[in-house]
Amino acid sequence: MPQVIFLPHPELCPDGAVIEAKSGVSVLDVALSNGIGIEHACEKVCACTTCHVLVREGFDSLDEGDELEEDMLDKAWGLESDSRLGCQAIIKDADLVIEIPRYTVNQVSEGH
Predict the structure, then answer these.
(1) In the Cβ-directed half-sphere of 72, how many Cα atoms lie within 13 Å?
(2) pTM higher than 0.85
(3) Contact (Cβ atoms closer than 8 angstroms) between residue 7 and residue 53
(4) What is the β-pairing status of strands 3-6 and 52-57?
(5) In this structure, are residues 52 and 77 in contact, taking their beta carbons and an 8 Å threshold?
(6) What digits encode the pLDDT tens for the residues 13-30?
(7) How far apart, in whole angstroms, are the C-alpha atoms of residue 60 and residue 21?
(8) What is the mean pLDDT of residues 29-43?
(9) SS3 at position 13
(10) HSE on the CB side for 27, CA within 13 Å?
(11) Which of 27, 58, 62, 112, CA to CA, is 20 to 30 A from 1?
């Protein structure tokens, strides 16, 4: 099973986390099912950027983002070359190192 390593985030995951994940599951679902409350205002349908993550290691193991995801990412705060939407980044067989950006474009937390 691949591991998803979440780097420390001051509010969502202060100590970081190492999680065994099943292939075929999104980075967002792995985070949420393990108590890491990444924003997801559109309920995981690729209609916002609140689940924006930075894939620090393992980026090339993910399928390329489609045009819709790329268009959404253009609106993300802190966009980088290794940015993905957590709801669209589907884990394969490689380990991933994920950084959750400090901010999102949401001014108010959805509080899921």
Answers:
(1) 23
(2) yes
(3) no
(4) unpaired
(5) yes
(6) 999 999 999 999 999 999
(7) 17
(8) 95
(9) strand
(10) 31
(11) 112
| Distance from C-alpha of 23 to C-alpha of 26, rounded to nearest angstrom | 9
The answer to whether residues 49 and 105 touch, using CB atoms and an 8 Å cutoff, is yes
Residue 11 identity (one-letter amino acid): E
Does residue 32 have a pLDDT over 50?
Answer: yes
Instruction: Check if the beta carbon of residue 97 is closer than 8 Å to that of residue 57.
Output: yes
Please give the backbone phi and psi of residue 69, each rounded to the nearest 5 degrees, phi first.
-60, -45
- Percent of the chain past pLDDT 90, that is, above it, reads 88
What is the H or E stretch that residue 4 is in? strand 3-6
Beta bridge partners of 9: 13
pLDDT at 112 over 80: no
* Sign of the torsion formed by the C-alpha atoms of 31, 32, 33 and 34: positive
DSSP string, 20-74: E--TT-BHHHHHHHTT-----TTSSSSS-STTEEEEEE-GGGSPPP-HHHHHHHT
pLDDT of residue 109: 52
